[in-house]
Amino acid sequence: MDFLLQNGSLSVRRLKEKDKLLLAKWLSDPKVLEYYEGRDQPFDLEKVDSVFYASDDDEVKCMIEYDGIPIGYIQYYELDKVTKREYGYGSEKVFGTDQFIGEVNYWNRGIGTRLVTSMTNFLINQLHADKVIMDPQVWNERAINCYEKCGFKKVKLLPEHELHEGEYRDCWLMEYNNPNLY
After folding, report:
1. Alpha-carbon span 118 to 112, nearest angstrom
2. What is the C-alpha to C-alpha distance for residues 128 and 15, in angstroms, rounded to an integer?
């Protein structure tokens, strides 16, 4: 296996064609959709294909494995100039991530904290990020608590930032600074 990162039983690898069925399974589960994409936006194979495989965006799309079992999804990307300006950044090298654990029986086991810490370290040490950001919705306390445990700080409220279940929701811009620079 070609893993981008490994931390004990946790590993992250690039998305493969065979992962489509798992993504469709996870992204049609109302428990997962409540936090990622919205319960009004279930995915089928066609939607998974167009969003995760046919798009030519700059996101690096990956699967999360635990003890060799695929359990979730993470993507990372370097912010473009427009997004950096929107968030108030200048010339810093800023990366963002989005993630979810799709196998709900792996929730509340500390895996998200290990994942976020591992990916943040990868982005800083391997890709030389100055900052890593995330933008969880303000009501998603479980995600916010996880990110804060990993050293992220709330830096800016983003009003009506994300369409979720039919309404624009406020999000927190959360940031982790490369400790070698600050």
Report:
1. 10
2. 22
Give the residue from 135, 103, 116 showing the smallest Cα distance to 25: 103
| Cα 1 from Cα 156, distance rounded (Å) | 39
- Are 93 and 56 within 8 A, CB to CB? no
Quick one: which of 178, 93, 179, 83 has its CA closest to 135?
83
- In angstroms, the CA 82 to CA 87 distance is 9
pTM: 0.94
Q: Which amino acid is at 76?
A: Y
d(CA 58, CA 76): 9
3-7 and 153-164 beta bridge pairing: unpaired
Task: Reduce the DSSP state of residue 29 to 3 states and report it.
Answer: coil
Q: Enter the DSSP assignment of 2.
A: -
Q: Which residues pair with 177 in a beta bridge?
A: 131
Number of Cβ atoms within 10 Å of the Cβ of 94: 21
Which range of residues forms the domain containing residue 66? 3-131
Tokens, residue 131: 């900052």
pLDDT digits (tens, 9 = 90+) for 89-148: 999 999 999 999 999 999 999 999 999 999 999 999 999 999 999 999 999 999 999 999
The candidate with the shortest Cα–Cα distance to 110, out of 140, 79, 134, 145, is: 145
Whether residue 168 lies inside any domain: the answer is no
Q: Is residue 178 part of a domain?
A: no
Indicate which CATH number applies to the domain containing 60: 3.40.630.30
